[in-house]
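Subject: two folds for Thursday's group meeting

Dear M.,

Sorry for the delay on this. The cluster queue was jammed most of the week, so I only got both jobs back this morning. I'm pasting them in the order they finished. Each block is the input sequence followed by the predicted C-alpha cells. Could you check whether the formatting survives your parser before we put anything on slides? The first protein is the one we discussed after the seminar.
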Amino acid sequence: MKLKVTALRAEAEHVVSVELRDPNGGELPAFAPGAHLELTLPADEPGTPPHIRHYSLCNSSLEKSRYVIAVGLSSSSRGGSRFFHEHVRLGSILNSQLPKNNFPLDHYANHYRFIAGGIGITPILSMIKWCLENKKSWSLLYCARSQASAAYFEELRTLGPNVSFHMDDSAAGSFADLKAALANPLGGEHVYCCGPRSLMLGVEEASAHWPENSVHFEWFSAKEIAPPPQSENASGEFDVVIKSSGARLRVSSDKSILETLEDHGLAISYSCRQGVCGACETGLCDGIADHRDQLLTPEQKASQKTILLCVSRAKSSSLVLDL
C-alpha cells in the first residue's frame, strides 16, 4: 500500500516520529499492539536492491486514519534510518506492506511489566496505550543513555508512578538492576521487552525463573552468530525444491537457503538476514527444517509449516518450499 507522510516531529536526540496516512484520506488496515510496518525504501544507487526495513507502530491501535512510527538515526545505518532523517519530508510517499505482528500482546494477563531501552520504546508505547484504553494493570521500566535521547520522555512522564526511568548518565553509567526488577513474578504476569541486545540479554537472564511463555522479546539483531550447519547429511548440504516449478536447487554448506535462491535469480523478500525480522518467512510444504531463527515460537517450529530462509537449514535431505 501507499502511505503519505503527514507529520514529522523530533521526539528525542536523533529520533523522529513519522505520521503516515492514506494519500486519499481513507481508513487504514487495522493493527494490534506490537505490530510493525515493512517499508520498501529507495536503493542507494540505480541497479542495487531497495532497502526493506521494519518499524514498530507506536500509536493507539484504536486509530483508523493513521500509523505512527519512530526512527532513530543509527551511526551504522545501512540506508534505512539515514533515509528517513535525510530525505523524508512532508508529502513523501512510502511503499508498505500490511501491518504484521511478531510481538503480539496477550490480552488476558493479570499485569503487564514492560521493559524498554532506547528506540525499543516504540512497540511498548502502543501496548501501554492499549492497557490504558482497557483499564489493565501495567508498569514500565524505560532505560536510555540520557533524558535527551529518550524518545517520548515527556509523554511517558505524565503517566505517573507506573513509569520508572533509568538514565545511564545520571546513574554514573551503571545499568538498571534487572535482577531486582524481575525478582518476584506475580501470578498471571507477563513481561514484554524491546531494546538493545545487551538489555534484552540481561532481561532474559534475570527472568530465567519466570513461568514458561510469560516473557516476550522483540529482537533487533540476533543474540549470537548462527552455529555451523548441523544437517543430518554429513556434508551439511541439502536440496530445496520450488513447489511452483519443481526446480531442485542444491544448498551448499557455506550458503544459506536465501543466498542459494538469490544465486538462481529468485527475488525473495528479506531484511535482517539474521532470523529476527520474519521478512523471508516462507511456507514449508515437505521436509524437516533445522530452525535457527529467534522469531518463530517453539510451537511454530515444531509444526514444520514455515521456515526463515536466511538462517535455517534442513535436517532432512530436502525441503519443499511454498514458492
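Second protein, same layout:
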Amino acid sequence: MYYNTYGCYNFPSMPRKFVYLIGNPVEHSISPQMHNAAYKKLGLDFEYLARQVKEEDLKKAVESLRLPDVAGANVTVPYKEKVVQFLDGIDEEARLIGAVNTVVNKSGRLLGYNTDMTGFLDSLKHDAGVSPDGKMALVLGAGGGARAVCAGLCKSACGAVFTHDVETQKAQKLAKELSGTSMTSISAVKSPTELEELFGKVDIIINCTPVGMFPQEEACPVPEGAVFSPRQTVYDLVYNPSQTLLVKKARAKGAAAATGLGMLVRQGAASFKLFTGLEAPVEVMMKAAQKALLL
C-alpha cells in the first residue's frame, strides 16, 4: 500500500503522465499492452498500468487520480457502478447507463464517461457482422458491462431486449431503469424455464458476465440444455481466452460468434482520446491486443 500525506491510496509515483486500470481482478487484462503500444506509436510520454484494488480501498484509489501526474483511469469489474459516487460529475451517456468505465482528471476534477456502449455497437457491426435493428436480443448479466450493452441495443432500435442475471433483482432493476428510454421493449427473464425457451427464439445472445474468463476457461454462462442455431449471433464480452467455450459451442452449431476483443479495442480507443485529446491508432491497439493474447 502507498499513501500520500492526505491519506489517499497512492499508486507508485512516476515522472511521466500515467493512466491506470482499476478493478479486481486485473491480471488477465491486456489493456496495458494495448494502450502503451498506442502511446509509443504517437511518441507520448504516458504509461498505462493495471492496479488491483480491494473494494475497501476504492475511494482512496479514486482520490489518488486527482494527482497532477495522472491523466485518469479505466474502470473494470466490479467497480463500474460503484465508482460513480466518488466522481465530481459524469456525462449524459454514463448517466443513462449508470456506469463509468473511464475517469478523466481535469485539473483535479474527476469526470466519468462510458465508452463501452460505443465500443460494443461498433464491434457488433464490424466484428460480429450484425446490426441489432429490429432483432431480439438476450443479455446475460446485469452489471456495468451489461448496462452499456442494453443501453446500446435500445439506442439502436433493437426489437426486444431480455436481460438475465443470477441476481434476479439486478436484472429487474436494469430493465426498469432503461424502460422508456427508447421504443425498444426491455424486460428481465423471470425463470430458468423462460431463459431456456428464449435461447431458441432470440437472434442475438450476449454474455456480459465474467463466466468463461481466464483462468476459468472451461466454464460456460449458458444452461446445459441451450441449443444454438445458424441464424443466431453470439457475442461474448470475455476476450481472454481468445476463443471462449461459449464461442466454441456457438460456432460448432453454425452460429456467428465473436469475443469481446473488438469491443475492448474500440472502447479503449475512445478512452485514449479522452485521456490524450488525440485520435487513437486503432490498428496499432488491435495488433498489440492480439499479440498479448498469444503470449
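Two things I noticed about the second structure. The chain is about 35% helix and 20% strand. The chain has a mean pLDDT of 93.

Cheers,
T.
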